[in-house]
């Protein structure tokens, strides 16, 4: 078992949430395949570089894509497991607010009629200008499309 692989306890929680195999033959070791998917997502390497211990990369990729098309990953991993962990008090919900302000040049929005209520002295907040698709001058750059 690798460092990031599922423990027996984690697998016992995850296994009942996985979809039942319908047609076709059942994989010998779905746990190994899921560990392979988790390893690949965690490391970000190409599928072909998947270690042999997780099985052929084509098989692991096939499981990943099939479940992605069927929408298995979101309900199983995000909804079910997250709700279970939250109920057990294993998730600490903290909110971080980023107070970074990103200012743009005053000529960013050329159509003042659509953004007149957003005028702030001589500067515009890039997240507040609703003139997407208009030509704009950005400080220090040539004319470009938003």
Structure explained in plain terms:
- This protein is 34% helix and 5% strand.
- It is mainly alpha-helical and 146 residues long.
- It folds into two domains: 8-87, no CATH class; 101-146, no CATH class.
- It has helices at 8-14, 30-43, 57-70, 73-87, and strands at 103-104, 124-125, 135-136, 144-145.
- Strand 3 (135-136) and strand 4 form a beta hairpin.
- The strands form two sheets. It has a two-stranded antiparallel sheet. A two-stranded antiparallel sheet has the order 3-4.
- InterPro entries: IS402-like_dom, Transposase_6_like.
- It comes from Streptomyces sp. R33.
- This is Transposase.
Essential attributes:
146 residues; mainly alpha; two-stranded antiparallel ribbon; two-stranded antiparallel sheet; 4 helices; 34% helix; extended; Transposase; IS402-like_dom; Transposase_6_like
How many domain units?
Answer: 2
Mean pLDDT: 74
By DSSP (H or I, 4+ residues per run), the number of helices equals: 4
Largest sheet: 2 strands, antiparallel
Please provide the ordered H/E string of secondary-structure elements. Answer: HHHHEEEE
The radius of gyration over CA amounts to 24 Å
Distance between the termini: 49 Å
Helix content: 25-40%
What structural class do you assign from the helix and strand content? Answer: mainly alpha
The strands making up the biggest β-sheet line up spatially as: 1-2
For the secondary structure, the number of strands is 4
Poorly predicted parts: 119-144
- Strand content bin: 5-15%
Protein name: Transposase
InterPro entries: IS402-like_dom, Transposase_6_like
């Amino acid at each position: 078992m690798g460092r990031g692989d599922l423990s027996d306890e984690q697998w016992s929680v995850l296994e009942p949430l996985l979809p039942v195999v319908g047609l076709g033959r059942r994989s010998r070791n779905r746990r190994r395949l899921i560990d392979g998917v988790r390893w690949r997502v965690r490391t970000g390497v190409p599928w072909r570089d998947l270690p042999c211990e997780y099985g052929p990369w084509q098989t692991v990729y096939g499981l990943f894509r099939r479940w992605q098309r069927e929408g298995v990953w979101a309900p199983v991993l995000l909804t079910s497991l997250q709700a279970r962990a939250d109920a057990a008090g294993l998730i600490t919900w903290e909110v971080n607010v980023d107070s970074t302000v990103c200012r743009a040049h005053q000529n960013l929005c050329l159509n003042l009629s659509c953004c007149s209520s957003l005028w702030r002295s001589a500067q515009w907040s890039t997240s507040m200008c609703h003139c997407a698709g208009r030509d704009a001058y950005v400080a220090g750059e040539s004319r470009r499309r938003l």
